[in-house]
From TrEMBL:
It is an enzyme of class 1 (oxidoreductase). Keywords: Apoplast, Copper, Glycoprotein, Lignin degradation, Metal-binding, Oxidoreductase, Repeat, Secreted, Signal. This is Laccase. It comes from the Eukaryota. GO terms for biological process: lignin catabolic process. GO terms for molecular function: copper ion binding; hydroquinone:oxygen oxidoreductase activity. Its cofactor is Cu cation. The chain holds residues 94 to 570 of 570 of the full protein. Binds 4 Cu cations per monomer. Lignin degradation and detoxification of lignin-derived products. The gene is LOC104244026. It comes from Nicotiana sylvestris. Belongs to the multicopper oxidase family.
Length: 477
């Protein structure tokens, strides 16, 4: 809050930290408990530069559930055997989709289903009857992931540094950028059990890494010599959207005193999200479908990052020529978003277009997936804010019928929402954190193709509502 200079996306809130450079992020944690994470936001360095950020209850307060005996961060990652920056450059040069990853990881280790790491599989020891809090973080660059622990129930108690009403499940789905806290009780016969993650891949006919990463949950009272192969959990099919819907539909927030979902909306926005194609004729041969290169957009605008300075610095110092304030609040053209889309709509426009919001506004955004290239589940992240997810569904959003179904009593609180494949999600938030905030798909290949935009939330009145000035060590371009 009020320290947007500590947010981090390159060319949005700061210029990149140069090789050998140093920058200290300073911020105050307010109204957040649970699990977040930190990561690089420059090019695709996030593939390996990340870690957990655990926010414990204040002294004198407690979890809204019984204190677990163990507290274990579980960071799900994605690994390539090649230099990830080389892969990014190749992708941008050819216009094709990036090479799929060679492995997924749990806390940096792929697990013993991959020959290269069979000797280094992580092992977590538990005593019978213990409760364990698993803080599951999806740090994968480009892939949504299912996560499960063989023969053990998972009680979901939080997501994205907010508590939820507990519910029990066998499996969770975590999109890139999301975190989910679950409680596991070691109540099974003494043995070795796999905790594992594998892909949820929703795009039609798109290649993906179809491997499984594992770690071992091992009971301490095993019989001598009982080192049999651990049991693997049963996963849904890689494209089982029903399983994902069943999981996400159970999310309900724990309402806080005096913090209510806004009913009166000042900014009612409608954003289409999805991929597109840019023609390479005339021009060099491209390796996307039918001699095209991939692009992505919101409301048919493919976001172009500046290079001379950051958007926040340009806004704060009134530097002209860096951005424009004409991002469309609704799609420029209405069409059957999830049906057969005309070829005319496949190619987006390009620009650094921002949308300005008055401080204190109540904002609603409808996020609508499109079938321009293929319908797909998109994890959309809003920097600087939590938001309420008041509704989700499939097909084209219908304001006459779908609005009546909104949950305004206990909707889940998130900072990253997976827009359902071929569907829509509606979020609401109060614009009470001034600054320039990136709003983007957390699949990094989609972000690089332009599936993003930025909000300017104007400074409020009064000391507590005004953003702090830039720190003296802010990196310069």
């Amino acid at each position: 809050m009020r320290t947007p200079w500590a947010d981090g996306p390159e060319y949005v809130t700061q210029c990149p930290i140069k090789p050998g450079g140093v920058y200290t992020y300073r911020f105050t944690i307010e109204d957040q408990e649970g699990t977040l994470w930190w990561h690089a936001h420059s090019r695709w360095l996030r593939a390996t530069v990340y870690g957990a950020l655990v926010i414990l209850p204040k002294q004198g307060s407690h979890f809204p559930f019984s204190q677990p005996k163990k507290d274990i961060p579980i960071l799900l990652g994605e690994w390539w055997n090649k230099d990830i920056i080389v892969i990014q450059r190749q992708t941008q040069f050819t216009g094709a989709a990036p090479n799929i990853s060679d492995a997924y990881t749990i806390n940096g280790q792929p697990g013993d289903l991959y020959r290269c790491s069979s000797q280094d599989t992580l092992k977590f020891l538990v005593n019978p009857g213990e409760t364990i809090l698993l803080r599951v973080i999806n740090a994968a660059l480009n892939q949504q992931l299912f996560f499960s622990v063989a023969n053990h129930k998972l009680i979901v108690v939080g997501a994205d540094a907010a508590y939820n009403k507990p519910f029990t499940t066998n499996i969770i789905m975590v999109g890139p950028g999301q975190t989910t806290n679950v409680i596991l009780t070691a109540d099974q016969p003494p043995a070795r059990y796999y905790m594992a993650a594998r892909a949820y891949a929703s795009a039609q006919n798109a290649p993906f890494d179809n491997t499984t990463t594992t770690a071992v949950l091992e009971y301490t009272n095993l019989r001598s010599g009982a080192n049999s192969r651990p049991l693997l959990p049963q996963f849904p099919a890689f494209n089982d959207t029903n399983a994902v819907t069943s999981f996400t539909s159970q999310m309900r927030s724990i309402p806080k005193n005096n913090i209510k979902v806004p009913n009166q909306i000042n900014e009612n926005l409608f954003f289409t999200v999805g991929l597109g194609l840019v023609s390479c004729t005339p021009g060099p041969r491209c390796q996307g479908p039918n001699n095209t290169r991939f692009a992505a957009s919101m409301n048919n605008v493919s976001f172009v990052f500046p290079r001379r300075t950051s958007l926040l610095q340009a806004y704060y110092q009134n530097i002209p020529g860096i951005y424009t304030l004409d991002f469309p609040p609704v799609p420029p053209v209405k069409f059957d978003y999830t049906g057969n889309v005309s070829r005319v709509l496949r190619q987006p426009g390009f620009g650094t277009k921002l949308y300005k919001i008055k401080f204190g506004s109540n904002v609603q955004i409808v996020l609508q997936d499109t079938a321009i290239f293929s319908v797909e589940d998109h994890p959309i992240h809003l920097h600087g804010y939590h938001f309420w997810v008041v509704g989700q569904g499939f097909g084209n959003f219908n304001p006459q019928t779908d609005t009546a179904k909104f949950n305004l009593n206990d909707p889940p609180v998130r900072n990253t929402i997976d827009v359902p494949v071929g569907g829509w999600a509606v979020i609401r938030f109060v614009a009470d954190n001034p600054g320039v905030w990136l709003f983007h798909c957390h699949i990094d290949s989609h972000l690089a193709w332009g599936l993003a935009m930025s909000f300017i939330v104007e400074n409020g009145k009064g000391e507590k509502q005004t953003m702090e000035p830039p720190p003296p060590d802010l990196p310069q371009c």
